[in-house]
Every structure is written in C-alpha cells, then in structure tokens.
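Technical note accompanying the year-one report. For the benefit of new consortium partners, we illustrate the data format agreed upon in the data management plan: each record pairs a sequence with a structure-token string. No post-processing was applied to the example shown here.
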Amino acid sequence: MTYVSFLFSGCDSKLYSFPKELTEIIFSPFAGFYFRNMKKRDAANASLVNKYNLPVPRYTSYPTLPFWNETIDTDRWLKNVKTRFAESGENGISLYIHLPFCESLCTYCGCNKKITTNHTVEAEYIDVLEQEWLMYKKLADHPIVIRELHLGGGTPTFFSAENIERLLQIIFKGCKVHLQNEFSVEGHPNNTNPQQLSVLYRYGFRRISYGVQDNDSQVQQLINRVQPFENLEKAVRNARDAGFTSINFDLIYGLPCQTTSTITATINKVTELKPDRIAFYSYAHVPWTSRGQRLFDEHDLPAPEEKMKLYLLGKKLFENLGYSNVGMDHFALPGDELFKAGQQGRLHRNFMGYTTQKTAILLGLGVSAISDTGNAYAQNDKSIHNYYTAIRTSEPAVIKGYFLSNEDIDFKKYILDIACTGKTTFKAEHLSTIKRYALTDLEILENDELIEFGEAGLSVTPLGKHFTRNICKAFDMHLQRNRAGIAKSLFSNAV
C-alpha cells in the first residue's frame, strides 16, 4: 500500500464498548471522566465533558505563545541571559538542544522538523549549534554549570554516534557538570543503536524517551510511523545494557482508528518491557498549524466521548500495573525520580514538560528552540535557513519573545503551582484582579467540585486534578482580558 493510499484507507468497522470494570470517578487530564455505574448520573457527567471540552493552552509557558511579541529586542534579551547566567551560579542551568531531522514524516506530529534522508546535514547543523553555544557562553563570567540537558527533536537518534559525540564535546567543553544532573534524550525505536547509547551514557545520559505512540499496525500505518514491537524491545534492551536507568515511553490517545480494544492491546504489550515512566498524551488535532494532519480523514478520529474512554481505560490499566499519575499526563513507577519529585513537591514544568530540575534559566539551542529565563522568553527562527543565516552573522537567532511583568511572574507561579502541586497561595495585592477576571470561572469550577478556593488560595480536588488545564486557564490574565480577541483555533481542545 502506498503512502498516500493508506493515509486515506479508513478504519475497519469496530464496536466501541466501555469496559465494565471502569467504575471509579476519575477525570482525564483534558477534561475526561469516568461514568458512574449509575444511569441517572450519565447525563450529568456527559454534560461536564461537553462543558470543559474547549480550546485550552497546555501551559508549558505563561504567558502562552499567542501573547508573545512577534519581534524581540535582541540586546535586551542577551543582557537578560547574561544576568541569569550570573544568578545561576553553582546551581546550574538547563539546556534544550533541538535536533530537527527525521527520515520520514509522522503525520500526527506538531513539532518543528525537517524531513530528509541525507545525513550529510548533520555536520553542518552541529557547526551552527557550536557557533550559537559559543555566542551565549561568552555572556557568562564563570564556567557554566550544566544541571539539565535534553536532546529533543525531530529525531535526535537521526544523528550518528560520531556526530552525537562531537556535539556533546562541544557542549561540555569549558563547562562544569552539576552533581545532581539529569541528562535525557529522545530516541526512535527504529534507529537507536548501541553505539549511540554508549556515547550518550559516557557523557552522563541516564534517561531515554522512546516515541511509541501506538502498537497497532493499522494505526501505525495511518500515522506513518511503522515500527515493529521487536524494534522497541531491542531498543529498550540496548538502553538498559548500556546503563540507562530510566526509560520512558510516549503514548498517544485519540489517534485515527484507535479503539478501546486496540489501546488495551498496545498498553498490555508495551508495558511488558516495564518502562519506568509513561507519557500518555492527548492527540492535539491542529491541522491549521500542522499540515501533515490534513492527511487524516477526520471521520477516523475518535469522537470526544470515545477519546475520553481511551484515556480512562489507559489510566486504569497503568494504575493496575503499579504506575502512579504524576502531573497532567505522566505515569511513573514508585522508584522513578519523577514520581519522587511529585511526592516531595519538587515537580517543575517547562517547555521540556514535567521535570525534576528547576534552574534559573532554560536555554534553547537550535532551530525553533525556546528559552525561558524566568522573566523572559525567546524563540529561535523556525526556518532552518534563517536560523543558519542569523548565527553565521554572529547574531542570536531569536525572532519572537516576551519580557514578563511582575504580575506575569506571579500569575505564572499560580499556574505552575496548580499544574505541579495542585494548590497555590494568592498574594493579597492580586485579590482584586482575581475577583475581577477569574471569580466567575472559579465559582463555576467550585460548583462542579473541581476546586476549593478562598482569599488565601486554591486547592484542586481529586475530582478536579484531571481538569488541570481548565483550572490553570482561570489564572491566564492575558486570555481573560482578551477573550473576544483570541481565535479559538489557536489551541487544541481539552478532550
């Protein structure tokens, strides 16, 4: 079957049934819920799903991207980074390196990527990354301490072992490594090999995240990510043999032609490999920004009610297997550091998702990479040509960004607190603003038993934990003040 034809081949006719054992009232991360095993409650619960299934940001930043400025004062940005380098001291910084290349297009993917089978692009890209890193290193008046490092993509394991080593030599040269470091990498099960893993391990990497998404052959064909289970099994074995101590699987629910039976089979099969943590993401259908998603027949996508069932079933299966829900969309075994951070109130959230590390600055290197200094954001150009041009002229490649006001910083903390710990405390000077812009939403959330709040602060109920995005939205002052001016299509739906 050719690439184009199988994308439009459609789904087999399948019966959708809700597993009888799922009777707990548990809500999905994006406004899902469990039906009570009581018919009189079904209509009310269905009403809640419809009520909260609205376009909502994912809150990996605040303010969110639509409110950033389309230009940025690069001199001010560089001064800001210099200040944050100085403040970071021995606590260290976080680094995110975007490696955009993929050999084939996964049609569900909303990431910035460059599709090519020409591996000669690796050397040139590393050359430019080196120039960008050196430009930033010059701003530091002491050796930079690297505490957190993540290689994301794209497909980082597109790069050869030799080029991965060359990149890491460049990054670590003249820098210190924090004793409590966390280095992680994203890998594709089809192309991650022992040589790459050996190099990564020698440079301190101990966690790898494999993009599994789904193990069903039909779903894999529809999303153009065909990877036999044997490849995943081999990739996991190779990582553990190399010394990696934390293995994550990314799974997605809501993909075309997924059913409760196929996702049950996927979860039961991949958890045979005992990953330490699992990210169970909701498929975000945003074809207006991700053109590959236009290849889907939208009739093949599960309806919100069916998508909800997929999440609830997955959550139940993970919990039965000993995984605990951490944050909005992660599950971890008790021995994993993410679980420990959640239990100890140390969980943090940034553009890399949930993390156990919190540093003064997250610096993003590479095309489209985003940096967060705590009081400012900046994003590199999304065009690889423009990114190369800027760096080669010794200019930062940032093209948009945002400098936070004092109010932004405080409300960012409220949103991070809710996303990471499920509670927050209000400052007295913000009560009038909260009353004016958020009170109506908070009262509705409280009436639905999702939160408890007063002048002192807010706590998320067990029922409301999985409506976290909707609760965070109440404290999004940019969105609250611009309800009429923000197009609904900017964000994916909560379910």
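Partners are asked to follow this layout when depositing records. The first strand starts at residue 93 and ends at 99.
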